[in-house]
Amino acid sequence: MATDPSDTPADPHTPVSNEPEEAPAAEQEQVSDPPSEGIEPDANPVTDEGIEVVEGYRPVATEMARLTGAGDSSLEAVEVRSLVEELPKVWMAPSTQGLPDIGEASFGPPPAIEAVIGTDDRVQIANTATYPWRVHASLLITAADNSQWIGTGWFIGPHTLITAGHVVFIKNSGVQGRDGWVNRITVMPGRNGSTLPYGSVISSSFRSVVGWTGSGDQNYDYGAIIIPTELGNLVGWLGFGVWSDADLLASTGNISGYPGDKPAGTQWYHARKIVSVNSRKVFYDIDTAGGQSGSGVYRIINGARYGIAVHAYGGTTTNSGTRIVSPVFNNLLTWRA
């Protein structure tokens, strides 16, 4: 039987699934899990300040100084052809024009979920078939009542993407038959408008934690999508880790995803310093919009990208994401295994 999210145990980080019950995550000693650039990544350069170099983007209060190249792929040799042959031969994206952000299913219409803070200086990613842009996936979500929505997810392993809990499990919609685990999600990594450089794959295997599925607590709004192929070996993934308050406050946050206020299926990027943190969330004035629910908030360390939070919410002065603290990290490790 699938895990019953209504039976909320004491620990809100207890993992739940729409599939047969899985064991709780074991405690781990490590504080970070490394990224992979996938096969032939043509990795994007970054600045010394931990920002992606994107044509047309001029970070506020940041000098575009000496660029650093990203490292070589850490994967063992894998034949690209064999991986591509596993993909469904669907290379043109399904229409998502006009579909609402999945956050609206649980929280109502904008501006409650995500926001542009001040001037909108997001930039579009033109070449989404390179690393790290191809790690970010456009999501077409079909709820239990067959309504359709959009969101964003990001790879952390060969067959695992992380996203917001409200992407995979809808709470308090007020619509009969809509609440609960979604029916299916079409995952489109590196989508570029109507073009799918890596095809698409459909998942019906999801994870979250009882803090979200049981009580809808926004402090525990994170989840995972498990795909039936190892597409992550091709596109690569972000690392993730646990860092101190001081370390995060000294970091620059990066977000790339698929906002619904831009042309359908186009990927947009923005970066700014982390504004504040608490024990469960990270706050930033990085610009986002509906459709980016579930995007990865990541920092760059020596050219390597590490997730620090899962973007989920907006506000008048800052947006925020679910912070990767030790219990979150442990669940992510289990879900990527």
State the end-to-end CA separation: 21 Å
Structural class: mainly beta
The main β sheet shows up as: 8 strands, antiparallel
What is the chain-wise order of helices and strands?
EEEEHHEEEEHEEEEEHEHEHEEEEEEH
Strand order of the largest sheet: 1-13-14-8-7-6-11-12
Radius of gyration: 18 Å
Continuous helix count: 7
Say how many strands there are: 21
Low-confidence stretches: 23-29, 61-84
Question: Shape from CA axes?
Answer: globular
What is the fold-level CATH name, i.e. the topology? Answer: Thrombin, subunit H
Mean pLDDT rating: 84
The level of helicity is: 10-25%
CATH architecture term = Beta Barrel
Roughly what fraction of the amino acids lie in strands? 25-35%
The count of domains is 1
CATH class: Mainly Beta
**What is the H level of CATH, i.e. the homologous superfamily?**
Trypsin-like serine proteases
